Amino acid sequence: MFFLTDTVLGYGALAELASELKNHGSKRPLVVTDRGILQAGLIDRVVAALGVEPAATFHDTPANPTKDACVEAARLFTESGADGVVAVGGGSPIDLAKAVLVLATHEGAVETYDASLGGTARIDGTRLPPLFAIPTTAGTGSEVGQSAVISVPGARKYILRHPDMKPRVAISDPELTLTLPAAMTAGSGMDAMSHCIEGFLSPRLNPPAAAVALDGLKRIWTHLERAVEDGQDREARWHLLLGSAEGGMAMTNGLGSVHAMSHAAGGLHELKLHHGTLNAIFLPDVLRFNAEAPDVDLAPLAEATNCTSVSAFIDAIEARNERLGLPASIAAMGVSRELVPDLARTAKADFTDRTNSRPAGEDDYTRLFEHQFGAVA
């Protein structure tokens, strides 16, 4: 397990960016972001804090980073003579930036490095330039993680994963999250919560990861609704950003069927479904499925959230989703029931299926997906 990303957390942390670039020898970084961050004016603040001129800026990161966007950004990295990458935004720009590290320094397509196909062994970590992550949402934990989820139209999502893909430094300044809209705060916060929960439930024995997961869960559980109700709640934003990072640390221990299902549904490219919202939707059903196994203990999760029982904890997640205004099902998000067989096969093939706390077969995924079409709101 690797917790090797230096994290600068706190209001005003962005001021540390220039010294961190210098410490890691980056004089011409490529800045990677998306158009929403660009239009919000946050990139101007980041560029002003670099202390050097960026080699170039790539601002066309899609909501779910695609193979084509990764290839284009890697080309820009090479042509601009960049020597590092600064990723600004949510999980999409940070994940795309991680793929750039690989594609700009290795031969082959994104699929070549898919972890489920042995791609991790094909990555030479010594070739990867330094990555600096500046999260503007509190959700994915990608700023401290070693994985990138990349979409390939017409195929399932691919996961690139290597210890040296982790950012060298995460600059986590809650000031950059204060203008995040309520809906994005809700969806990204539930994403972070799912990382803490699935990281805790991973069958891999790792007590430090379990402790980090429970601490992150407590912070998110306590502060998420506060931040959704009042985006300027500085204390809540601080705790959410820390909880998100803790979720990112916990998920290095493995995720599970919630993410397997989210990756499958997120692969429906024409719908552009939000990953964190999908996790929130699938979380209660998967937890009930896991709780049926006698060797899976969800009681510490209930205790951490002051719920009286496991069933009360799962019910409380459903109630919270409703209060946050999240969809009740993927059917309500426009997914067709006829896609269930394909979704079930894709979920079973996903890398994260391997570390679900209870083994799940394709028939289990079929039942879990089918349940989504009896709960349309």
Total strands: the figure is: 8
Query: Which fold name corresponds to the CATH topology of the largest domain?
Result: Dehydroquinate synthase-like, alpha domain
Number of domains: 2
The span between the termini is 40 Å
Instruction: Give the name of the CATH architecture of the largest domain.
Output: Up-down Bundle
Please provide a written account of the structure.
The chain has 377 residues and is α/β, with parallel strands linked by helices. It has two domains: 6-177, Rossmann fold (3-Layer(aba) Sandwich), CATH 3.40.50; 182-374, Up-down Bundle (Dehydroquinate synthase-like, alpha domain), CATH 1.20.1090. 46% of the residues lie in helices and 9% in strands. It is built from 14 helices and eight strands. It has helices at residues 17-23, 35-39, 42-50, 67-80, 91-103, 182-201, 207-229, 234-250, 257-266, 275-291, 299-304, 310-323, 340-349, 362-371; strands at residues 6-9, 29-32, 56-58, 84-89, 131-135, 147-150, 158-161, 169-172. The strands form two sheets. The protein has a six-stranded parallel beta sheet, sandwiched between helices. A two-stranded antiparallel ribbon has the order 6-7. β4, α5 and β5 (131-135) form a beta-alpha-beta unit. The longest helix has 23 residues, at 207-229. It is globular, with a radius of gyration of 19 Å. The chain starts with 5 loop residues before the first strand and ends in a 6-residue tail after the last helix. GO terms for molecular function: alcohol dehydrogenase (NAD+) activity; metal ion binding. This is Iron-containing alcohol dehydrogenase. Its cofactor is Fe cation.
